[in-house]
Each structure stands twice: as C-alpha cells, then as structure tokens.
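For practice. Any example?
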Amino acid sequence: MTPEEIKIIDNLRARGLGYRKIAGQTGISENTVKSYLRKTKKAVDLVGQNTDDHKCLYCGTPVKQHPGRKLKKFCSDACRNKWWKEHQNLVKRSANYYFTCPTCGKEFIAYGNERRKYCSHACYIIDRFGGVR
C-alpha cells in the first residue's frame, strides 16, 4: 500500500467505518485493510466506544466498553438478571421442547435441550440405578 492509501484508511477508520466500507471506498481488498489495521493496532479504534455513551439498562451507571468487542448493556450479572426478571415478556422462548418423563410420567418443558429425557436428576437415578446411588 502507498502512504496515501494508508492515510485514507486511517482517516476512514477514525470516522468509525468498518473493514468492508473502507475497502469499498479505497478499492483495496477487505482482507488487506483488516490485516493492516490489526498489525497497526488500529482495528479497535472505533468512534463512540467511551463509557459516557453507554449506561446500564437496569441501574443507569456508566458501563465500561472494550473496543472491538460486543457492546455491554449491563454493569454486572446482578443487574442483568434483575432486568431480565422484570422484562420476561421480551424473552423469545422459541426453543421449548415438551416431554413426558419415562420414570414418573410427569409432563415437562425443556428449554433449549431437545434431547432431554427425564424431568429431574432424581428420576434419572431411579430409572438408571433403581433408586440407589
């Protein structure tokens, strides 16, 4: 790359553009842009990553963001859990699986596990070992 192209890439990255947009505007391969920015440690210099812009959804305290990573929405696991408990209507539970336990005959729902067989560990122990550990 020429020094002029490097200046253009640096300026576009400072404005917050991603690899693909920079590659499209400069005519340089996306992989070349990515390699250059990673080697020069400019891959994570994105605009708007400071803590003043991002506050915890639950308590409103500033949340420290790590450049180049997914934006954090909560300051702690406690705040995240409390927020989700209060906003359960926003959770999309599309991975519910309905089963009948072969040990006790109870119907149960397993979220996210389509291979589950028993309603509880106790029923598994009874079925597998005859109730003895």
Q: What stands out?
A: The mean pLDDT is 84. Helices lie at 3-14, 19-26, 30-39, 77-86, 121-129. Residues 96-129 form one domain. The first strand starts at residue 96 and ends at 100.
